Amino acid sequence: MQATVLSKQSPVDILTFLPNFTIMQKSSTVHYPISELIRSRRSIRHFSHQPLEQDKIGSLFEATRWAPSSTNEQPWFYIYATKEQPELWNKIYDCLNEGNKIWAKDAPLLIVSMARKKFTRYSVENAHAIYDLGGANSFLSIQAVELGLQVRQMAGFNLQKLNEVLNIPVEYELSVVIAVGYPGDPENLPENLRLRELAPRERYIQEEFVMNKTF
């Protein structure tokens, strides 16, 4: 049986070979006016060793207070550690995947985000808790830009280990670990990560995810 060689095929041939493959258009251009804070936000991997001021840390969490949530439940909860708290910082860091440890070792602030599973007033599951936590994390990320900081959120960590080392109650569901700091020098990253940091930011164009009609 002759093997199929994809490397010499044209794009059309590849699409024929993979009928379910969908091409979605991206662009690095901002097509409509948006806030400068949103334009300036990055998910960086290059952090400075500069410590974070406590009042700036307070501002990050103050921003989450004012995020919208279902019935104003505010189900988010955070545990944070700075490098000035090495025992707690290392507990969080040691739970990260090896690929994240390569660059997160320089982050002066690590935050563990989680959501309370049930409503406080109804004793039933809050189906929107993780959604609301995501909104709060977005507020935190934008506030970070306002303060001259940047944020990178990570799903790459050992969920079971992090639950254990932080003794997370069963009432809470872990979401992402967040690295925060002042931008550093991407030249200090390994070559593969440096190239990714310096590549243009691209996003799917609106036509790929917005419609003014039914499906």
Radius of gyration using CA atoms only? 21 Å
Percent of residues in beta strands: 15-25%
The CATH H-level superfamily is NADH Oxidase
What value does the average pLDDT take? 92
The chain-level structural class is alpha+beta
Largest sheet: 4 strands, antiparallel
The CATH architecture would be 3-Layer(aba) Sandwich
- Helical content class: 25-40%
Work out the number of β strands. Answer: 6
SSE succession: HEHHEHHEHEHEHE
> What is the CA–CA distance across the termini?
42 Å
Q: Low-confidence stretches at least 5 residues in length (pLDDT < 50)?
A: 1-12
CATH level 1 name:
Alpha Beta
CATH topology: NADH Oxidase
Shape: globular
Based on the model shown, name its key terms:
single chain, 215 residues, alpha+beta, NADH Oxidase, two-stranded antiparallel sheet, disordered N terminus
Structural write-up:
- By secondary structure, this protein is an alpha+beta fold.
- The protein has a single domain, classed as NADH Oxidase (3-Layer(aba) Sandwich).
- The protein is 33% helix and 16% strand.
- The strands form 2 sheets. It has a 4-stranded antiparallel β-sheet. The protein has a two-stranded antiparallel ribbon with strand order 1-6.
- The longest helix has 18 residues.
- The radius of gyration is 21 Å and the shape is globular.
What is shown here, in short?
The chain is an alpha+beta fold.
Topology:
Blueprint: H1 11-17, E1 26-27, H2 36-40, H3 54-65, E2 76-82, H4 86-93, H5 98-104, E3 109-116, H6 129-146, E4 150-154, H7 159-165, E5 172-181, H8 191-198, E6 203-204
Antiparallel strand pairs: 1-6, 2-3, 3-5, 4-5
